[in-house]
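Please fill in the sequence for the structure shown.

STRUCTURE ENCODING:
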């Protein structure tokens, strides 16, 4: 009785296999599909295997995964029929999918309809779904959407001040991302605080290479920093975040950059990388800043300042704040960045315990002082766990095999 979780990219397949007690049996990555240097990284039975071999297509990738699930020396299954359901990470469900759904042809058709909204993500998601359903037929396949959590945002926060017709005809609006992570963190935070989720007002800082902040009231998103695309909002590893839209016209008309070049500039050459001139990795930037590199120090300051502004704005939007939560690679691991973000916010009711902050690295824990009006927590995210929960629920398996709790789940640590 196993649940398989799939995250399919344009040239990769990430996978994780859970048993009936939500223990990880196997996980891994098929990478560089269609390239000459493709490989499988497979972790099971305490071993971490890396095997370089030709993987020409996603179908080849799925067959390879199944082969290693059943492998006599490295496998974890006696028969593939032990897998009862498959959960698929789906990036963009537009404003149609407000929750996770059982996949059928209608769902796939809608995913194809939303390809213009996520041209880099939806096509490989669809390809992964089709191939997985071919290899594992006659069991439920469930789509879990990154955008679904943020569909509770009211129009006043999800619309742009463009002519209204472009929302009606082009679906141009703020969608938000990292929703699956936010849902897990919301429920875990309520459990850690011993409070009802319906009573909590929290701000979730999902700080990784991609960065977003969400304002959550009663378990529902009321605003989030990422918008029509993941480019909007905060400074990120290589994305610029919020800029004056007029900069785009200036780059094109005055500096002669093509639209494609500007797209690449804003998404892949900006952010921490663009400011520091060294790296998009906060660890490397922090090391250089400690050696008095001025641009790296500036990158840290700009990053923290952009987050601090959103915390203030979202606290006002929520009408108060119970918890500030840090998650994802930077949020979970960089005590220095958490200090920089919270510094000077004592007047707001945020009082960081520096000793606890330095100790809570890559693990969950409260890092605010006991008397702090606002609780500050680190909560490692676990999107796979959330996808599995939804898969079990939507597939109708929960009463049969799972007793699920957020009390003790802390088996997933994010990378920078």
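FILLED IN BY: designer on duty
SEQUENCE:
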């Amino acid at each position: 009785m196993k649940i398989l979780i799939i995250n399919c990219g344009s040239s990769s397949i990430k996978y994780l296999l859970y048993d009936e007690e939500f223990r990880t049996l196997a996980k891994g990555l098929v990478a560089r599909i269609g390239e000459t240097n493709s490989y499988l990284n497979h972790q099971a039975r305490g071993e971490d295997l890396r095997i370089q071999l030709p993987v020409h297509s996603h179908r080849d990738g799925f067959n390879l995964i199944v082969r290693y699930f059943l492998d006599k020396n490295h496998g974890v299954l006696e028969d593939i029929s032990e897998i009862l359901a498959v959960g698929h990470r789906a990036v963009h469900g537009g404003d149609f999918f407000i929750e996770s759904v059982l996949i059928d042809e209608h769902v796939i058709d809608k995913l194809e309809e939303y390809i213009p909204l996520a041209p880099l993500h939806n096509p490989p998601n669809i390809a992964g779904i089709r191939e997985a359903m071919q290899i594992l037929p006659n069991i439920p396949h469930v789509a879990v959407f990154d955008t679904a959590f943020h569909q509770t945002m009211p129009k006043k926060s999800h619309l742009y001040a463009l002519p209204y017709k472009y929302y009606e005809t082009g679906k141009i609006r703020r969608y938000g991302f990292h929703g699956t992570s936010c849902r897990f963190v919301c429920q875990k935070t309520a459990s850690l605080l011993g409070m009802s989720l319906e009573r909590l007002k929290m701000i979730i800082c999902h700080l990784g290479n991609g960065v977003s902040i969400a304002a959550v009231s009663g378990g529902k998103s009321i605003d989030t920093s990422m918008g029509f695309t993941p480019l909007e909002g905060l400074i990120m590893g290589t994305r610029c975040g919020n800029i004056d839209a007029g900069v785009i016209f200036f780059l094109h008309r005055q500096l002669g950059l093509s639209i494609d070049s500007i797209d690449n500039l804003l998404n892949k050459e900006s952010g921490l990388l663009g400011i520091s001139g060294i790296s998009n990795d906060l660890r490397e930037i922090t090391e250089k800043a400690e050696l008095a590199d001025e641009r790296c120090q500036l990158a840290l300051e700009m990053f923290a300042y952009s987050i601090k502004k959103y915390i203030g704005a979202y606290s006002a939007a929520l009408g108060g704040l119970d918890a500030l939560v840090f998650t994802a690679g930077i949020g979970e691991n960089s005590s220095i960045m958490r200090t920089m973000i919270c510094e000077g916010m004592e007047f707001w009711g945020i009082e960081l315990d520096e000793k606890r902050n330095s100790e809570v690295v890559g693990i969950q824990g409260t890092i605010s002082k006991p008397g702090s009006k606002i609780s500050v927590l680190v909560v490692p995210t676990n999107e796979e766990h959330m996808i599995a929960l939804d898969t079990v629920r939507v597939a109708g398996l929960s009463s049969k095999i799972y007793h699920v709790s957020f009390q003790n789940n802390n088996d997933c640590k994010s990378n920078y």
